[in-house]
Amino acid sequence: MSTIAAAPAAATTSAVLEVDRLHVEFSTEGGCVMAVKDVSFTLGRGEILALVGESGCGKSTVAMSIPRLLGDTRARIEGSIRLDGVDLATLSERQMRHVRGKDISVVFQEPMTSLNPAYTIGRQIVEVIRQHEKVKRSAAMRRAVELLALVGIPDARRRLSAFPHELSGGMRQRVMIAIAVACDPKVIIADEPTTALDVTIQAGVLDIFRRLRDTLGTAIVLITHDLGVVAEVADSVAVMYAGRVVEQCSTGEIFARPAHPYTRGLLGALPSRALMRGGRRRLADIAGVVPPPTVDPDECQFAPRCPRATAACVAARPPLAPFVPGHRVACIHAGGEETA
Amino acid sequence: MIRFSLRTVGLAAITLVLASIVIFIGVRLLPGDPAQVLAGEQASPELLAAIREQFGLDQPLWVQYLRYVGEALQGNLGMSTRNNIPVTDLLLQRLPVTLELTALALAVAIIVGVSAGIVSAVKQGRFPDYVANGLGLIGLSVPSFWLGLIAILLFSVTWHVLPASGFVPFTTDPAGNLRGMVLPALVLGVGLSAVLMRQTRSALLGQLSADYVRTARSKGVGRGTEVRHAMRNSLTTVVTVLGLQLGGLIGGAIITEQIFVLPGFGKLMVDSVSSRDYPVLQGAVLLTVTAYIVVNLLVDIAYAYLNPRIRLNGGTE
Amino acid sequence: MTAAVSAVVPARPRPQWRRIARRFLHRPMAIVGLVLVLAFIALAVVGPMLTSDPDLQDFQVVLSPPSLAHPLGTDDLGRDVLARVANGARVSLLAGVVSTAIALVVGITLGLISGFYRGWFDAVLGRIVDVLLAFPFLIFAVGLAAILGASLTNVIAALAISQVPAVIRIARGEAMSIRDQEYVSGAIADGSRDGAIILKYVLPNAASAFIVQATVAIPAAIIGEATLSFLGLGVQPPNASWGILLTGAQQYLAQAPYLAVFPGLAIALTTLGFNLLGDGLRDALDPKGHR
Ligand SMILES: Nc1ncnc2c1ncn2[C@@H]1O[C@H](COP(=O)(O)OP(=O)(O)O)[C@@H](O)[C@H]1O
Ligand SMILES: [Mg+2]
After folding, report:
1. How many domains does chain B have?
2. In sequence order, which residues have a C-beta less than 8 Å from that of residue A258 and are 6 or more positions away?
């Protein structure tokens, strides 16, 4: 597609997005749900960071808290999220509205329900353009056609007047991406953008992200539980388990030297051949269940499911510490022998 | 769209035909022999037979029905037995009053009910929500004829600000006409406002937590636009409720006209029951039911228009 | 459902009545509703025993405002309004409960059969229901009352018949959705008799919908009776009904406003009670629904 490789990932200098010690709690009837605990990462210009982990480990909560979409009533958020050095928590709701859709945009997990069923595709794309730029409706419409073409929707002009239910899931997800990229955002948060799609369409969607990164230098937080997707497009990876990041490094590292037993478990069911071909597999089913999110004991949360767990694992929670340069892991056995 | 409309219209037409049969039979079931009513108590058997023959009452019921429908389609609904005026003339004379009353009440209900429902949903769990909910429950519980009496007691008897009765046609004295319509329209509109408020609130609350509203917020739109997105998808509910409640509005109009002495359709209907003026009753009920079916048809079509899924698929969901 | 599960017939889900009761009792407004409804029933059942004769005329105290001897005042014939309101409550309770009970029994039977078997019966009944629903409720009731003649029994009959179509429609919908559940298909496959299936599975599972419908239908019938009587098509004077009391009050609005206030308040509070009770039951039975 593109020959200009704008930014080789890990080597970026200035961080666009810095998430620092993020904590998110929901108060529910069943008690306080600690969905995200002490999550930190930085994202450079043109970098694609993959956030992986089993369902329920807090990925979407991280995603939603970045553009402050969690709603302030039931969620308690701590830590800081900085966009180009500006702490988003200090912005008023009005200022935040200028950030959403313009600097940070989101592609949601559910392509079938994330578009308004009563509005045409064109109207929904034009809405975000005219929200942030002073342009005429006709100019915005022309722009919408370009965007639809960009995300690979054939016959774009005619599609403008289509309603969401007339499009397939893959087409809807492309429309969501068109909306997300409409205002050339600095950061796109894509929450499992391909999970609901079938394999052939997935490749096309991932291609769009890669192209955006290459041509516009967009930074992308790509949430997935598909390691094939990670191998294909991500520059770096953060593995989450029960609300925490347990391992963080470059994509090459994670496949070459997976250090956390949980990560290895995830990789276990992934034949390398499939990896090479860009084939996709779901995360392996690791025996055991995720602990309830209402408790946060001072121990390794993965210990009950871990083949290498020892008494030391439940004596204190292992910190996320450097394993080799550029590779951090939260496991006291990380330095041990490689064969699991 | 066309296929959908044709089917809907066809079904409505069948319903209308069956309803007209029900009305026709219902009126025959009313106590009293129509010929006797026409001829008076002391009529001789010969006179009764003559009248029966003249009005076709000696024919089989289905012949009578077909004849009635044939005449009705030409605008002839028979003669009032009480004052020998064509029923059609009577109905046309009373129609504007009822139309004005229900239209005003409908406007009141839509404006008050829908906006209160929106405010209540947007401010869920806060003061305006409690106020709207409380008023909604009261509006739902107070029967309209009592509300009418209380309104007359307060505004006419005690404060003398609005008339309790005395209808003047709009063409004669527009201001006087409206002054006379204020209380009836408000009284009639209260119940429907309450229903609309509650339904709008619950529909909108459901839609406000939908994924597409979150998408809208992620685009950086304000709260107002978010609510507009959700409201657009709640309109189908609002329209459906309006259609379902229209019967209540028509029923309410009967009583409201009775209380405020408005010379409308409802009053005509009740009076014709007590004076056994069955041709008038039959005509009035037939016209009301026709109007009701037609409006419900319009609601169905509006529903399809508001919901692109039905519109394009030409079928039901 | 996975293939492994479909082989086993899952147990019939039971509504958890204790949980529902607890949820209901946690809502203050629902309790207010319950209290209002109980007060109404008490007024209707024991009220007439405690008050004086509602038809006793006393020309010494014509149109006298509320006092110790007559807490709600007296009407134009010197009759005690409290006694007449209590008597009216009895009429309302009869009209509301009996007509709703009849409508529910008839409507549920027809609706369940229609929804369970579908076929020609369903088609014909559905058409009839459509036609009957094309009549505004009150017009239908007025027409029936005119055909049957004005009396309490006929008002009850008219209200019952007018309510049947709506009940049929609800029962039919419930029967159709429950019939498709696995535990019912399982029972059908096991060769259980249809009647037994309807009684054992369909009816209990649809019960909550019918309970909620009853809390809607009873106040509608109470207002319906009052309205018909108010229009002179229902209970006839000198019998006391809340509607009759309001007809009488209309002439004396200026001299004796309390004549209009108390019977109307009785209707409003009773209806409010049923509405709150219905809201509370709905929330308790379906906590996820928005309200
Ligand atoms: N709005 C909410 N209220 C209460 N709990 C929530 C809410 N959103 C998410 N959670 C809980 O937080 C945890 C993480 O959820 P989520 O971020 O959606 O995980 P993932 O996207 O990785 O599947 C889960 O236990 C989930 O039940
Ligand atoms: Mg998620």
Report:
1. 2
2. A247, A264, A267
Question: Which residue of B129, B215, B309 to mutate against A (max A Cβ within 10 Å)?
Answer: B215
- Write out pLDDT tens, residues A233-257: 999 999 999 999 999 999 999 999 8
Task: Give the HSE-up count for residue C258: Cα atoms under 13 Å, Cβ half-sphere.
Answer: 16
Q: Are residues B220 and B289 in the same domain?
A: no
Cis peptide before B169 (omega within 30 of 0): no
Residue B123 lies in a domain: yes
Alpha-carbon span B290 to B267, nearest angstrom? 18
ipTM, two decimals: 0.85
How far is Cα A120 from Cα B273, in angstroms, rounded to an integer?
53
| Residues 156-195 (C) with a CB less than 8 A from some CB of B | none
Distance, CA of C37 to CA of C39 (rounded, Å): 5
Q: Identify whether the C-beta of residue C289 lies closer than 8 Å to the C-beta of residue C272.
A: no
Atom 27 (ligand 1): residue with closest C-alpha? A56
Same domain, B177 and B285: no
Q: Determine the distance from the C-alpha atom of residue A302 to the mean position of all C-alpha atoms in its chain, rounded to a whole number.
A: 22
Examine residue B205 and state whether it is found in any structural domain, yes or no.
yes
User: Are residues B42 and B152 located together in one domain of the fold?
Assistant: no
pLDDT tens string B150-187: 999 999 888 888 888 778 888 888 888 888 899 999 99
DSSP track, A257-284? ---SHHHHHHHHT--HHHHHTT---BPP
Contact A128 B229 (CB under 8 A): no
Most confident region among A81-95, A197-211, B30-44, B239-253 by mean pLDDT: A81-95
Structural domains present in chain C: 35-48+77-285 (1.10.3720.10)
Is B303 found in the same domain as B253?
A: no
Chain C residues closer than 8 Å to B248 by CB:
136-138
With vertex at residue B73, the alpha carbon angle to CA B72 and CA B78, rounded to the nearest 5 degrees, is 20
The answer to whether residue B272 is domain-embedded is no
Cα atoms in the 13 Å half-sphere on the side-chain side of C169: 13
B69 and B189 both lie in a single domain: no
Q: What does the alpha-carbon distance between residue C170 and residue A37 come to, in Å, rounded to a whole number?
A: 49
Say if strands A244-250 and A327-329 run parallel, antiparallel, or are unpaired.
antiparallel
Q: Is residue B269 a part of any domain in this protein?
A: no
Judge whether A91 is closer than 8 Å to chain B, CB to CB: no
Contact of chains B and C by CB distance (3 or more pairs under 8 angstroms): yes
Report how far residue C48's alpha carbon sits from residue C54's, in angstroms, rounded to the nearest whole number: 8
Q: B123, B270, B137: which is closest to B194 by C-alpha? A: B137
Cα gap B148→A218, rounded to integer Å: 66
Chain B contact for C251 (CB, 8 A cutoff): no
Q: Is B3 exposed, middle or buried (0-12, 13-18, 19+ CB in 10 A)?
A: exposed
Q: Is C57 helix (H, G, I), strand (E, B) or coil?
A: coil
Compute the residue count for chain A. Answer: 340
pTM: 0.84
DSSP assignments along chain B, one per residue = -HHHHHHHHHHHHHHHHHHHHHHHHHHHHSSS-HHHHHH-TT--HHHHHHHHHHTTTTS-HHHHHHHHHHHHHTT---B-TTT--BHHHHHHHHHHHHHHHHHHHHHHHIIIIIHHHHHHHHTTTSHHHHHHHHHHHHHHHS-HHHHHHHHIIIIIIIS--S-SS----TTT-HHHHHHHHHHHHHHHHHHHHHHHHHHHHHHHHHHHTSHHHHHHHHTT--HHHHHHHHHHHHHHHHHHHHHHHHHHHHHHHHHHHHHTT--SHHHHHHHHHHTT-HHHHHHHHHHHHHHHHHHHHHHHHHHHHH-HHHHHHTS--
Same domain, B259 and B281: no
Average pLDDT over residues B237-249: 84
Q: B284 is in which domain, residue-wise?
A: 1-87+277-317
Is the pLDDT at B230 greater than 50, yes or no? yes
